[in-house]
Design goal:
Oligomer: single chain
Low-confidence stretches: none
CATH architecture of the largest domain: 3-Layer(aba) Sandwich
Structural class: alpha/beta
Largest sheet: 5 strands, parallel
Helix content: 25-40%
CATH class of the largest domain: Alpha Beta
């Protein structure tokens, strides 16, 4: 039986929930000891620094690449890691193409999953529960927007400037924010006089209520590895508009996507919630996990691919 050691960052990030779900749904084939593993799965590519090279040489190594940001990509770092890698895993077609241009190792494109146990509909008045008004349109954004080192410089890959441009073009709206480092958007909203509510580190129950309170969730990123919000909003039947990044074009109705984040009137996106919801159903973890297991089985059977630069 194959044994897999999945390494994550312990940063309260998407990788942590991925590994938690994986381990809980695959208890017979996971191990907490990399020495016992057939496969070391690095769920974030930079984590290869945290394992001794001798272990990486001895084991089969699968690396998940969430996205490649051309503005920040370091070719030397990629090549240093690539010599230990047996296969790459990506979530979307754009990242798949980029990785294939950089490495001759196998690349497997397998979608994110969702755990249906985590995303049930709340049987409450979500806006009332969060003390949100009913007389305005609420637009949601639950990911960080600053680089972090000064809490002022916008993380342009996430498109906070595009988000604000869109929101500022609308009348009678309120913004609902979640996640860390939202200072750039908060400063823009304050200057524009647009009201907002901010739940910095919401638990999942609160996050679901936040989604269900939205008239529209907006993804304005220029570069993304997911985003997970595409799955979450679709699963909760929340109207969503997105730039053409990550998995968006594989999940959302084409009318929900605009490359330049020049989105239409809020009401437009309500009619596509069923389309988006039906598209996401195949990404249930109970369906997806078998595809991941097949990937790991293929990698295990292949010879160890080790090149020294």
């Amino acid at each position: 039986m194959i044994k897999i050691f999945a390494l994550h960052a312990n940063e309260n990030w998407i990788c942590d929930s991925i590994v938690h779900d994986w381990n809980s749904h695959n208890s017979t084939i996971v191990t907490s000891n990399p020495i016992e593993a057939d496969i070391i799965w690095l769920v974030a590519s930079w984590l290869w620094y945290t394992i001794h090279p001798d272990i990486l040489k001895q084991k089969k190594v699968v690396v998940t690449v969430h996205h490649i940001d051309n503005e920040k990509f370091n070719l030397q770092d990629f090549m240093n890691r690539d010599q230990y890698v047996d296969a790459y895993h990506v979530y979307d077609e754009l990242t798949e193409r980029k990785v294939k241009m950089l490495s001759n190792k196998p690349v497997y494109k397998i979608m994110y999953w969702y755990n249906p146990n985590n995303w049930s509909y709340p049987d409450v008045d979500c806006r009332a529960d969060l003390n949100l008004p009913n007389d305005v349109k609420i637009i949601g954004s639950f990911q960080r927007d600053t680089e972090g080192f000064d809490l002022k410089t916008p993380k342009l890959s996430k498109g906070p400037d595009l988000f604000c441009d869109y929101v500022e073009s609308l009348d009678n709206v309120r913004v609902l924010l979640g996640g860390w480092r939202r200072q750039y958007i908060i400063n823009r909203l304050d200057k524009a006089g647009i009201p907002y509510n901010y739940f910095e580190m919401a638990d999942r129950g609160t996050l679901i209520k936040m989604y269900k309170s939205c008239d529209l969730y907006v993804v304005s990123s220029r570069c993304e590895g997911g985003p997970q919000a595409v799955i979450e909003a679709s699963l909760l039947k929340v109207p969503i508009a997105s730039t053409d990044v990550g998995i968006a074009s594989e999940v959302l109705h084409p009318e929900c996507i605009n490359t330049e984040a020049k989105f239409d009137n809020i009401e437009k996106y309500k009619k596509y919630v069923d389309f988006n919801y039906n598209n996401i159903l195949n990404y249930n973890i109970e369906i997806q996990k078998q595809t991941y297991i097949e990937m790991f089985e293929y990698v295990k059977k292949a010879g160890k691919q080790l090149w020294t630069i």
